[in-house]
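REQUEST FORM: STRUCTURE PREDICTION
Request ID: SP-0412
Submitted by: Lab K.M.
Chain count: 1
Length (residues): 164
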Amino acid sequence: MAGTIAEIAAECGVSEQAVRGWCRRNHVAKDAKGSFAISESQKTAIYQHYLGVGRNQVSQSAKPSFATCETSETALISMLQKELDRKNEQLSVKDKQIEELNARLAEISSALVVAQQTAQAAQALHAGTIRQQLTDGDADPDVHSQEPEEGEEKKGWLSRLFGR
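STATUS: Completed
RESULT:
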């Protein structure tokens, strides 16, 4: 026998379960004890599978080392830092947008105040014009021409309509 599954797994840096799975998929024969009887050619194929160019990324290493954990933590921290930087950039853009909207709101508010003042001035002018017309209307004889003079009789609406 070329080697035990534990030895091959340790040399390849994968778990024993990964090597057993490879043996099942590749129909490796079992010996009398029920364990896989791995020949030299099969051992070479296992090494090529796990250590070769097309290494199976699904397989797990037998025991993660401290360096591997530290590297993955560093990668995680780096990824989180990039995410934070991206979020900070987005927040700064949103802050600028809020400042622009506040400036527009101030402009619109001042324009609204001016428009209200103009409307009030127009109303006052209109009221003054109407008051002037009413005071001028008392002196104008045409305004009261529809009312009968003191000597005339008051006509009903039918006689005014038919002219009698």
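NOTES: Residues 5-51 form one domain.
Reviewed by: T.R.
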